[in-house]
Design a protein that fits this description.
heterodimer; A: about 160 residues; mainly alpha; 4 helices; B: about 500 residues; two-stranded antiparallel ribbon; 21 helices; about 70% helix
């Protein structure tokens, strides 16, 4: 059986809230204070669990009313396809950027990140396009570094391999 | 009061404060004008630049972004028919038809001058009302505060489009994020999994940036490559116009200007409603009071005046609620509140009395940002269309770099950048599951305060009925229930009238 979008969201939220509710059992109590550290989390998580269950029930009732028509049924007007592959790739590239920051430092990682993500989002069609990509990547890394570090006294990540 | 204000205006005109204000206003104008880049996003991008500045410099820049962004939305709305910000949607109704009639300058400047007058009129209210409301809020005990925060949360939930249950769930998920970390009474770690980093909980800013920025950017990225209908902008539009004529067009309709400004202020003051609702309501009001409602949507100046005056008046109203109660009006003000916290400012009823220089500094920055906005547009209007057509492939990586800097610079640790990424995935996931983000952000901001006030109230007196028997607290809780019940009724009525449209829709950021 395939879960609809709302039911799937409800199940995830229910699982999260119930597992966190379980974790509140191990929280130590204080003899000095009548209200323990688990008091407020239990209220919040209890409400979250209830609302998650409600979302699942309401979605099931709505499905039944529609006579089993799920969201997979063809829409009257087909929506334009979404580029989810690009979204996943962007998350991966950003993840690599964050992972490289402590090793390569801000300037080199930022240059690599911008130089990778730009052509991923829109592939340059000529050599000039590739040069522009590299120039923008270098300018982003250097200009932001100078502005933040030299003018605004905001520290940026240092690289253990590069020392800057 | 006016002495303080005069001193503050004199202070803000010093180069030290004027430069950040100018830069912020300019960034706001560009961010507001760029379709797909909201004011929230612009504030997030500008925030790391203010970390090294003193609090008033930083807040002047932020106020500039807010004012400039609210006005900037009108530029693209009028010129290419695409609202730069969601709240400028009503400006497209009459602004773009006016441009198509060959009057782009009149359309843009009617919008900007209306923003100017609406914003300044709201400034009078901002300065006069903040202290008064803060004085009322000073009478509040923990019961009243708890109920006020619940009221704000219920308002934002009630106003979400789509499922109310999802709105409520989104709000509670925001609260769930805040329970991670040490408890506020005994500092006992909760849900930290033994991690020292999590003992202080998730830092507010990386979570906020992650959820908002990634949700918006990834939604943009997934549309890359789609064939979309592009409204052809007019080639090299001349924005030359007689400013006196435009100003007269606005001031010759004093009732319209005042009424729509009032609508903007009231919506701004009410917690959690936001700019889009203000402009839509003001536009609707303008149509109702107009002698020629049939002209609306065809390039009627009254439509532009109503939309833009209310939009910037809304900024003034929202600032009152932030400064007097410490409650954000919408996503933009939520980020503004976060920015204030970053600069070590605890907004709320004590702010006016404890930090009068800063409070009047913000008022002064708000007032000065309006003429600056006009001045900047006079100087840079020629280049605006060129700036707003920057390709997404260039813009998105740079925005992500700034998001990284914003998250890292808070505590100078890379772990915060991982938090940014994790909550980026969470934010994007929530958008795909069609959860509204505004309740989550409000829950995230108010979560700690809700817990502190609840615990404080119960430790003062364990009788829970006091929340209902204290008159203000009881009234606020009653209003909270009423707002959710009203929203349920409204959704039920809306569902009955309209067949469910289950198309892929984008979330209003």
């Amino acid at each position: 059986m395939r879960l609809s979008r709302d039911s799937a969201a409800g199940v995830i939220c229910l699982a999260l809230s119930l597992s966190m509710l379980y974790l509140t059992r191990g929280l130590p109590q204080s003899a000095l204070v009548p209200i323990g550290p688990d008091f407020y989390p239990r209220i919040v998580l209890g409400i979250t669990a209830f609302l998650s269950a409600l979302l699942i029930v309401m979605d099931a009732l709505s499905m039944r009313r529609k006579g089993g028509i799920t969201e997979t049924a063809p829409a009257p007007q087909a929506a334009a396809p979404r580029n989810y592959k690009l979204v996943v790739l962007t998350f991966i590239v950003f993840g690599l950027y964050v992972a490289l920051l402590p090793w390569l430092g801000y300037r080199i990682s930022t240059f690599l990140f911008v130089a990778t993500l730009q052509p991923l989002l829109e592939r340059p069609k000529s050599l000039r396009g590739w040069i522009i990509v590299l120039v923008i990547a270098a300018a982003t890394a250097l200009v932001t570094f100078i502005v933040f570090e030299d003018y605004l006294q905001v520290l940026l990540p240092r690289g253990t391999l590069t020392g800057n | 009061m006016y002495e303080h204000l005069a001193v503050a205006i004199g202070g803000i005109l010093h180069l030290k404060y004027l430069m950040p204000l100018l830069a912020g206003t300019f960034a706001g104008l560009i961010g507001g004008a760029l379709p797909g880049v909201t004011i929230t996003m612009t504030i997030i991008m500008v925030l790391p630049f203010t970390f090294g500045l003193d609090p008033l410099q930083g807040l002047a820049a932020m106020t500039g972004v807010y004012v400039g962004g609210s006005a900037g939305g009108a530029i693209t709305a009028a010129l290419i028919g695409i609202p730069g910000t969601p709240s400028a949607i009503t400006t497209t109704f009459d602004g773009f038809p006016m441009t198509q009639k060959g009057q782009p300058g009149r359309a843009v400047w009617l919008g900007l001058w209306s923003s100017f007058f609406g914003g300044l009129l709201a400034g009078v209210f901002l300065i006069g009302a903040t202290g008064q409301l803060a004085a009322i809020a000073l009478q509040f005990g923990p019961w009243e505060y708890f109920s006020l925060f619940i009221f704000a949360l219920s308002m934002v939930v009630g106003l979400t489009e789509g499922s109310i249950v999802k709105g409520l769930l989104s709000g509670t998920l925001g609260l769930v994020i805040t329970i991670v970390g040490s408890d506020p009474v005994m500092s006992i770690p909760r849900f930290t999994m033994g991690s020292d980093f999590l003992r202080s909980g998730f830092a507010f800013l990386p979570v906020l940036i992650g959820i908002f920025a990634f949700a918006q950017l990834m939604t943009d990225i997934e549309k890359i490559g789609q064939k979309t209908e592009v409204l052809t902008p007019i080639k090299t539009p001349s924005l030359t116009v007689s400013h006196l004529k435009v100003i007269w067009e606005i001031l010759s309709r004093p009732f319209l200007l005042l009424w729509t400004t009032l609508v903007g202020i009231v919506i701004g003051v009410l917690p959690a409603i936001g700019g889009s609702a203000a402009t839509v309501m003001a536009y609707d009001q303008a149509k109702k009071i107009s002698k020629h409602p049939e002209r609306f949507g065809k390039g009627n100046p009254e439509g532009i005046i109503a939309s833009e005056a209310s939009c910037n008046a809304n900024v003034g109203g929202s600032l009152v609620t932030i400064l007097a109660f410490g409650i954000p009006g919408d996503a933009v003000t939520a980020v503004m509140l976060g920015a204030m916290t970053i600069h070590g400012i605890q907004s709320g009823p004590l702010f006016m009395t404890q930090e009068p220089a800063l409070a009047y500094g913000i008022f002064a920055a708000y007032l000065v940002a309006h003429p600056l906005m006009i001045l900047l547009m006079l100087v840079t209007s020629r280049f605006f269309l060129r700036v707003i057509t920057v390709p997404k492939s260039v813009l998105i990586p740079i925005v992500l770099v700034l998001c990284m800097v914003g998250a890292f610079a808070l505590n100078n640790i890379v772990s915060d950048v991982w938090v940014l990424l994790i909550f980026g995935v969470v934010g994007y996931g929530l958008v795909k599951f069609r959860f509204p983000l505004a309740p989550l952000i409000l829950g995230l901001i108010l979560g700690d305060q809700i817990e502190v006030n609840l615990v404080r109230a119960l430790m003062t007196d364990s009788n829970p009925w006091l929340f209902f028997t204290h008159p203000i607290s009881g009234a606020l809780l009653g209003l909270s229930v009423a707002s959710v019940v009203f929203a349920l009724w409204q959704h039920h009525r809306h569902k009955k009238r309209n067949a469910p449209a289950e198309e892929e829709e984008d979330v209003d950021f």
